[in-house]
Amino acid sequence: MGDTQGRVPVGIIGASGYGGVQLVRLLMDHPQIEIAYLGGDSSAGKSFSDLYPHLGHRVNLTIEPIDLDAIASRCQVVFLSLPNGLAYNMAPKLLEKGCKVLDLSADYRFSNLETYKAWYGGDRNDRDVADTAVYGLPELYRDRIATANLVGCPGCYPTASLLALSPLLKQGLIVPETAIVDAKSGTSGGGRAAKTHLLLAEADNSFAAYGVARHRHTPEIEQVCSDLAGHEVMVQFTPHLVPMVRGILATVYANLRDPGLVREDLITIYTAFYRTSPWVRILPGSTYPQTKWACGTNLCYIGIEVDPRTDRVIVMSAIDNLVKGQAGQAIQCLNLMMGWEETLGLPQLSFYP
Amino acid sequence: MGDTQGRVPVGIIGASGYGGVQLVRLLMDHPQIEIAYLGGDSSAGKSFSDLYPHLGHRVNLTIEPIDLDAIASRCQVVFLSLPNGLAYNMAPKLLEKGCKVLDLSADYRFSNLETYKAWYGGDRNDRDVADTAVYGLPELYRDRIATANLVGCPGCYPTASLLALSPLLKQGLIVPETAIVDAKSGTSGGGRAAKTHLLLAEADNSFAAYGVARHRHTPEIEQVCSDLAGHEVMVQFTPHLVPMVRGILATVYANLRDPGLVREDLITIYTAFYRTSPWVRILPGSTYPQTKWACGTNLCYIGIEVDPRTDRVIVMSAIDNLVKGQAGQAIQCLNLMMGWEETLGLPQLSFYP
Amino acid sequence: MGDTQGRVPVGIIGASGYGGVQLVRLLMDHPQIEIAYLGGDSSAGKSFSDLYPHLGHRVNLTIEPIDLDAIASRCQVVFLSLPNGLAYNMAPKLLEKGCKVLDLSADYRFSNLETYKAWYGGDRNDRDVADTAVYGLPELYRDRIATANLVGCPGCYPTASLLALSPLLKQGLIVPETAIVDAKSGTSGGGRAAKTHLLLAEADNSFAAYGVARHRHTPEIEQVCSDLAGHEVMVQFTPHLVPMVRGILATVYANLRDPGLVREDLITIYTAFYRTSPWVRILPGSTYPQTKWACGTNLCYIGIEVDPRTDRVIVMSAIDNLVKGQAGQAIQCLNLMMGWEETLGLPQLSFYP
Amino acid sequence: MGDTQGRVPVGIIGASGYGGVQLVRLLMDHPQIEIAYLGGDSSAGKSFSDLYPHLGHRVNLTIEPIDLDAIASRCQVVFLSLPNGLAYNMAPKLLEKGCKVLDLSADYRFSNLETYKAWYGGDRNDRDVADTAVYGLPELYRDRIATANLVGCPGCYPTASLLALSPLLKQGLIVPETAIVDAKSGTSGGGRAAKTHLLLAEADNSFAAYGVARHRHTPEIEQVCSDLAGHEVMVQFTPHLVPMVRGILATVYANLRDPGLVREDLITIYTAFYRTSPWVRILPGSTYPQTKWACGTNLCYIGIEVDPRTDRVIVMSAIDNLVKGQAGQAIQCLNLMMGWEETLGLPQLSFYP
Q1: Which CATH number fits domain C156-320: 3.30.360.10, 3.30.70.1560, 3.30.70.3450, 3.30.390.30?
Q2: Which one of A21, A319, B184, D263 has the fewest beta carbons within 10 angstroms of its own beta carbon?
Q3: What is the strand order of the sheet B150-152 is part of?
């Protein structure tokens, strides 16, 4: 692994879920980072290789109890990879002790805590801290992330949805209330806790929607869409479960304001919009993204179609839900916060097929 | 296999594709049918069990060349399970000789041959025959099918899409031009001919759209929607490939005309609409169909949701693309044409999981 | 569902697992059976369609508490589909009250209760009852099953393994101690209880062995092999998990005693051995069984190869682990016990692809 | 991509198959390599990103015709990734012009050309060149590879099989003629050319053996086993197709010479045997390798079990068939040939799950 001198010591709290193990995997290959603390409750005391024998040859770490003082004393940056509702009891203390914090849960994604409470419940009194949080979607909020101490990393579906929708809303090209996001995710998005409906015997060779008209990622998507449109926007969001491990495809529909726009116009607009975004790839005409292309990488592939019969635009975006949709994007944010290159240490080549 | 006396002799032309093998499988278990002719070009002369060794213990048939005279002399009913553009050279002759014909290709799905030519090409002069064809969706055209001699069996996507959309359009509950069908299919829909993008190594663990804004099932869906609405309707249709063998889920979006309608209203309306349709199952509230539930059967499961925030209805329909979406539906039509019970000989219980 | 008059009333105890739901599915289509009792502990009081909405249109049953008196008063036959170690507290009472009992667990598979205890633990004093149990593999013990009141249905792996091995051992064609069974199963064999390693996100796109040299199906295989060979035989058995829902393939290796035997000899011997077994299909030379061919049916496909370089025979057997490996075989046994045709009510055609 | 100055220019002939695309992917991330020539027949003239749009942002190369003079003038090293039977017409000329050659086909795997001809056919007169070829399994032939100019890279199955078997044979721990390799591979091993049996609709949710007792990897495994044992050894080899994209698991059985050996002894022996092999990982007791752990990396995971009941050893080895089983191992060989660290530029962390 080489020399760790001069590397930034980071902590990961919640190391045993898919978010945690992705963070470990990606940070192991990051040239400027050293993992200095791996914290977990149920797995405290275990070696990381007890949980993941196949990573034992590279990752020689023991999972420690979640002791915020110890974490803060040893880490400059802390990733919180925990279920919703836990981070807001930890982040304030870590910030106070001088750590930068990247939260992968929903706790710091909302500028309006009432929205959070309405969709996630819970009783929290950390408005002052929450007000300092920046939504960690670098393609939209790069500058604010660069100076933030607290980043609320986006959900997996919102990442794919917003990267597809943003240029349209920002440029006022669509009628916002016509926006529909039909999203499809691999089952790893449901986490590593054992649930019957996520068993291979149940989920394989089947396909279905869930959380129709009430999935918690809806207000998160709407918050950013409203920000981009300059007024409140409601979005129809429907998630589906795909019989595969990783990947999200969002198929986005919206009515064009100007029926004269053709596909090539939009490809030009998207390309310009993401010119400075190394992790977004606009595909040429008639090429539509495969989730497989993104898997293992921090990339988002975007394909664009215009239907001249209906004056609708259809945008498809593909990401790896655990990388660009979770751990990779958090590291992308960290790169910005540390003043490093945005691509530093993140994988660019999917291992297709 | 028991006694075949008194059974109706049927022919299947095109026995080696997925449509053909499904027809064989289903007709073998049909109590009123006897397979009297199995016709194929490339496989003529072979035993059916050469192609499908696992069916050899039940199916003792040899594939014969496609000889229309011989077919007509031995068969009362003929299923054409061929690529598009072949049936319209065979069906007229078979009809003339007194056979009933069920065509599984696109050739007889369109009441307007100009629409057919615009989307499928080809030069055909069988308007007189085509005018007698009935679109084989029993849930909508049961009576006409019962008296037809020529049935154009629906495509797999149109079957799922139209069963989801019909009650809404028929009752004028939605704004037709807001209808969007985001459909997802297992790869068997692509047929049994070897194509690189349908290889397991390519298609597994990936998800993508294809044919966006230009798939040939679009005009077929629109033709029936227009018929139901009483005026021309355009529908946004987007197919996707799911990494699984069988099954289609159509997720249908539309704006409600009357924002006061709630989910239970629509469940009641759908239940009434399909009261006499034994193959359509309306699910209770908050239950969404899994494609797996339908696989192996001729059933269509429909789940309904209303989003009171957006005044949209979201309808999900699940079918087995090779049964209700193809061979099973053809047999359902045949049951009607012969005056038999609509459910005769068709499987009702998926072998879940 | 038609008339149930004159049908035999049966009970199923343990209706919510994969074994139970298969029994329900298969018995619904059995022409001589009526399901008269569906018993369960955790799910008592629920409607069957609460658990399996997609079967609600055919199965109108409520799950009742496990009350042996009530069961015996209403049922002529009882299927026990429970975890190991429960049946031996129920079967004796049900038998005493005059029921025929088919147990799908391991409890009544062993003629030697010491073997049971050594591999499964538990403290049981039902030797008298256990001594009357017949091992429910009809292809070997057809006559004994026909007169039994208590049948211990085989495990899924033993079914596939023994159907492949039996002709070789019975005829003394192999050196018994060289027998190796390398078996591969879909994940539904692990049951419906949620376990992390059976999640799609864990098990899909991966392959591994488990329980090497210590799987509990080993003594069951050995018991029958010893019976066939006429002396004690030890078999090397290794199970693997395949990223698919259903199906078992057993690849069996053994050294031939007579190196002069060729493949066609063995095909002839196997065909003769299974001549009266409608559920076993011997494949022609160079054709090897696909698990998919058997799925949904009660069939076992067997392919045979001889390697003249090594004087080994390689036999491959494919079954559906939940049908021939579990619920279907139990019904096959019931057919024998009731004097019905062995194939009655059981599916013969896989719904390939 | 950074500076390419001082990098070694390499050519890849046969860029459009899975071997080629893996080489491109892996070499793009190799710090000492520059891809200087991408040669193909059918795809000559196309941009690499025409074939693989998702790699276009990193790989800016055009596929050129296979012109050996041009290749030799621009490349120091050439990878041949072609169907069997083509390399032996190219390698001699490239070697003559001073290139080092790594062949991924079977052409240079055999020290005895008669064995090659018996199993692969063809008429070749390059014995002089073939005699200089080294079998590219670094864990066994590290020193010879380091000084070779022509390397015949092993097949995927032989790689997994031999890494599992070698310590046993080398140390004389087993009775060689009892060795059985029951191997299972993802379907990408069948290549990217469209074949019906590799379609997702055919291969998914199924499992079967193929090439029983006659697969061409048999003599390759036997050649190395014989070399290790010091006398001719025959091995029973059976490949199977797993419904997944990537990965091979080999389950190896053999009778121990010394029944006193326990699992821990063998773990110690294997650990010592592979002490200097950074790409082989011996797992602790009771831990068996998942193919998923290796996928995307050049690693081979080995799990070991001893059955004291049968005195057999069971060894399981897991690799990525396209990396350690193909392109990655070729690069590992190149690293040795160039005097670089054996691990240089090759991925070590699977992107689990």
Answers
A1: 3.30.360.10
A2: D263
A3: B33-39, B8-13, B77-80, B100-103, B150-152, B134-135
